[in-house]
Design a protein that fits this description.
By secondary structure, the chain is α/β, with parallel strands linked by helices. The protein is built from ten helices and 14 strands.
């Protein structure tokens, strides 16, 4: 059994914990992530299936450290030889917050020295070529507690493999998946995104509806690690592939005023393997009508942050609210960094939740 740490954007830890629970893995939510124990296969399962986590890390050691000497000893005490082959590459990335050790660069250098020191003894060598499998080491210091981890994901989990170009203001896939889950939508209800841009919300909702593992079409760093049994890993992938039922997708659609964004959106839908299951068209919000009764309108409209764009964004908000009022039994769910959405549309939301789109503080409002 290993201890795993699934990192999550601030505010999404509970969501990640619920996802782990649905995978049969009991987790404990803490600031910045969820801790869970499980086998190597469980680590891969989490990588393949978690929709809202940023990364899955193998937690090797955790301790309070306030000096570089203490950090050195902590890192050197880890049995690295159990994980790293003689030719393993082990780059280090450090992040420090609210701690006495606040220099990521120094933490990286110290940790590298400590690992080399340890490996020198085991492998009786002075030099390591680092030409083999990648073991990205992550040193995370928060409130003077250091977590020493190996990054089992490799590329961050939002990189699902369907996005080629990012468009003007795309939502991170992990946040889009969280919004889908936090909204009142559930497979069976119609979902519509009237400002769909490059299509992130549509793709993430469709993945959920089709039982599509978000990591199905990408690989993870840990798939090259020796702790993972190749046959069992293959079985997890085969199972994930067999659960993907594209024919289950229905009643997910969207539109956008911008033709360029739509071209990208269509490309992403194809690359996500969603074929023609999702209809998207060019239209401004104001021109929309005739959405199905009970539609969940889930959208990430412009925020109007730049000078001169605020008024336009506010008009889009009024149009969105009018579309909601014109659609019987619809729900409207909007993520925006504009602080005055409720004032602009003249109605308080039934639910409001604070979330972060990157570093941008946003509200997720549900009507
Ligand atoms: C923040 S972006 C949405 C990004 C999208 N969630 C994605 O993942 O790519 C806002 C989108 O609203 C669209 N938009 C702006 N005004 C609009 C309007 N009046 N009607 C429809 N779409 C509009 C923009 O073209 C842009 O694609």
């Amino acid at each position: 059994m290993y201890t795993w740490w699934a990192t999550a954007a601030f505010g999404l830890e509970g969501q990640v914990r619920r996802e782990l629970q649905a995978l049969g893995l009991a987790g404990q939510a803490e600031t910045g992530g969820v801790r869970f124990s499980g086998s190597a296969q469980d680590g891969l399962l989490a990588n393949l299936w978690l929709r809202t986590a940023d990364r899955v890390l193998l937690l090797l050691a955790e301790q309070q450290v306030t000096t570089f000497d203490a950090l050195f000893e902590l890192v050197k005490g880890i049995p690295w030889e159990e994980h790293l082959e003689r030719d393993a590459a082990f780059p280090i990335a450090a992040q420090c917050a609210r701690s006495q050790l606040m220099s990521p660069r120094d933490c990286q250098t110290i940790s590298k020295k400590a690992i080399v020191e340890r490996l020198k003894k085991t492998y009786r060598a002075d030099w390591f070529p680092e030409t083999g499998a990648q073991y990205q080491v992550r040193v995370i210091l928060h409130n003077d507690v250091a977590k020493i981890c190996l990054d089992a994901s490799g590329e961050a989990l939002n990189r699902r493999g369907y996005r080629t170009w990012t468009g003007e203001a795309p939502l991170r896939e992990t946040l889009a998946a969280a919004l889908v889950d936090l909204s009142p939508w559930a497979p069976g209800l119609p979902l519509y995104d009237p400002c769909c841009g490059t299509g992130t919300l549509l793709v993430e909702a469709a993945f959920r509806m089709a039982g599509r593992a978000p990591g199905l079409k990408r690989t993870f760093a840990m798939e090259r690690w020796r702790l993972l049994d190749t046959q069992e890993a293959l079985e997890l992938r085969v199972q994930a592939q067999s659960r993907f039922n594209v024919a289950a997708i229905k009643d997910i659609a969207g539109s956008d005023v911008d033709q360029e964004a739509l071209t990208l959106c269509k490309r992403h839908l194809q690359q996500a393997g969603l074929g023609n299951r999702i209809a998207v068209s060019q239209a401004g919000v104001r021109a929309l009508s005739g959405l199905k009764e009970g539609t969940v309108i889930l959208t990430n409209p412009p925020y109007g942050e730049r000078m001169g764009e605020r008024k336009q964004a506010e008009q889009v908000y009024r149009d969105l609210f009018a579309l909601h009022l014109a659609t019987p039994k619809s729900r409207l769910c909007v993520i925006t960094a504009h602080p005055g959405f409720e004032r602009v549309v003249g109605r308080k939301a039934a639910r409001r939740r604070r979330l972060y789109n990157g570093r941008l503080e946003c509200d997720f409002l549900t009507y």
